[in-house]
Amino acid sequence: MRLVRAMAVAWAAVPLASGAAEPLSLLGISAGKDSSGLSVPMQVVILLTLLTLLPAAVMAMTPFLRITVVLHFLRQALGTQTTPSNQVLLGLALFLTIVIMQPVAADMYHQGWEPMEAGKMTPQQAMDAASAPLRTFLVRFAREKDIRLFLEIAREPAPHAPVDLDLKVLIPAYILSELKTGFQIGAVLFLPFLVIDLVVASVTLSVGMVQLPPVMISAPFKIMLFVLVDGWNLVVGSLMKSFYS
Fold first, then answer.
1. Per the omega criterion (within 30 degrees of 0), is the bond before 84 cis?
2. Which ranges of the chain would DSSP assign to H, the alpha helix?
3. Is the pTM above the cut of 0.70?
4. Cβ atoms of residues 148 and 116 within 8 Å
5. What residues contact 107, with CB distance under 8 A and at least 6 apart?
6. Confidence of residue 106 (pLDDT cuts 50, 70, 90)
7. C-alpha dihedral, 87 to 90 to 95 to 100, nearest 10°
8. How confident is the model at residue 152 (pLDDT cuts 50, 70, 90)?
């Protein structure tokens, strides 16, 4: 529950990080009694819209992105088609993401949500405080080259310190960096299975088995190799360690 609350506060802080005016209430939606306030049905529509965007934010601003890319590369390298299924891979990626993001979400919850509930902070101050741990996490894995790219696109000057980066620049830079890292890991995973495919294809062609697809013969060998080296433990362990190094 804390993770959901913390990510909701962080997602609401994204559009406010560019210097928008302080909102009158949570998420910038005022319940004013005069004509300047939004009606209750409109507030419900806006809140539901933000909730529908929350899963995309969780996938884009967490290790979920890298983990899912690597796991799908692994399944393609094994040549097992739909085994494990998408639901299994997404479930594994989700729980690994929760393990990695739990300290960050706890800091966001304690620094932003709790003071706001206690009335010690305004919603704007709570969002700024809650986005600080998330910004620190994103800076660790965003490449400097990607950050410079989006600084140029946004036409913003370089900040004095990485933690001062705007989230609208930091988040897309983090996504590009994670995609590159995921593809690099996926390419390394492909290499040993590619060698098996090449060996099997050479053997089948040399003995004249041209009508039998080499993939059908190499698949059991690839699965056997993956099981013998305890591949799932190695892949998941390496992925988790990559976020703590």
1. yes
2. 2-13, 40-60, 64-78, 86-108, 114-117, 123-141, 144-154, 167-206, 214-228, 231-242
3. yes
4. no
5. 133
6. confident
7. 180
8. confident
Amino acid in position 192: P
**What does the block give as tokens for 177?**
């960096």
Least confident of 22-26, 56-60, 150-154, 213-217: 22-26
As given in the structure block, the two tokens for residue 113 are 């949500």
C-alpha 189/C-alpha 193 separation (Å) is 8
Would you put residue 194 in left (φ > 0), alpha (ψ -120 to 50) or beta?
alpha
d(CA 67, CA 43): 35
Q: Are 163 and 136 in contact (CB under 8 A)?
A: yes
Q: What is the mean pLDDT of residues 72-85?
A: 86
How far apart are alpha carbons 208 and 154 in whole angstroms?
Answer: 60
Per-residue H/E/C for 28-96: HCCCCCCCCCCCHHHHHHHHHHHHHHHHHHHHHCCCHHHHHHHHHHHHHHHCCCCCCCHHHHHHHHHHH
**pLDDT on residue 2:** 52
pLDDT tens string 110-138: 887 877 777 787 878 888 888 888 888 88
C-beta atoms surrounding 40 within 10 Å = 9
Amino acid at 207: V
Mean pLDDT of 203-228: 79
Tell me how far CA of residue 217 lies from CA of 135, 196, 206, 209, 232, in angstroms. 48, 10, 14, 11, 22
Q: What is the pLDDT of residue 230?
A: 87
